[in-house]
Fold:
Amino acid sequence: MKLSLGISTCPNDTYIYEALVAGLEGSPFEWDVHFADVQTLNEMIIAGELDVAKVSAQIYPKVKHEYTCLGCGGAIGYGCGPLLLSSDSDEFNPECVTVLPGANTTAALLFKFWYGREFGGSAKVEYALFDEVYRRLVAGKAPQGVTIHEHRFTWKCDKLHMLQDLGAYWEAATGAPIPLGIAVARNKFQGETIAKIESEIRRSLFEARKRNHLITPFIAQKAQIEDPEVMEKHIKMFVNDFSENVGEAGNLALNRLWALANG
Structure:
């Protein structure tokens, strides 16, 4: 069976899915792989353009009539949330525009969750791709913005200022881990096919974990950053037991996030 798959070029995705993309022995699937940033993947799933994809957790209420949330292959965890940063200040300015990494990203929803509880009402925001948000902050072209992925590990070196760890805020407010991303597959597939897709993702992750080294040429080539140490930190932070099995705590986090998205 030929299926289309969408994942990002971030090290956690390429680490989990590399063996699947390369072709697992005895696989029942042939994968047509699309690499894109998370906002683009969100839009492709909302438009129904992919069979399977890793997307922002918050979009699921919009697509649940077409897609099933898989029990593996996502990004849920502790201490791994998006960061609200400033280019030149240690204090958040609610009068300034905050740049967010895509309207449909979990990062955007977590920012709005924080802002609503701390300030009330709606924040002044605009949207850009995640790497553009960071470039604008570093260049001083945006006063404040929310960063995700590997930029969690580079902001100090680039002399940016932490305003709020949005993931830590979510954890403190909800008692749940941070539900950043999920893998989804079309509802039209029968239960047996869904189970085989999940098995394929878990097998791919198992193959990655068997290696003595985290970074492969495939991961390095796809990454948006060249520093191997940052890539390793990224994988260690975002790939964990939730990646293999969402489980009870992961499902609790997702349901709380989806309730917020629906609100």
User: Anything to note?
Assistant: The first helix runs from residue 11 to 22.
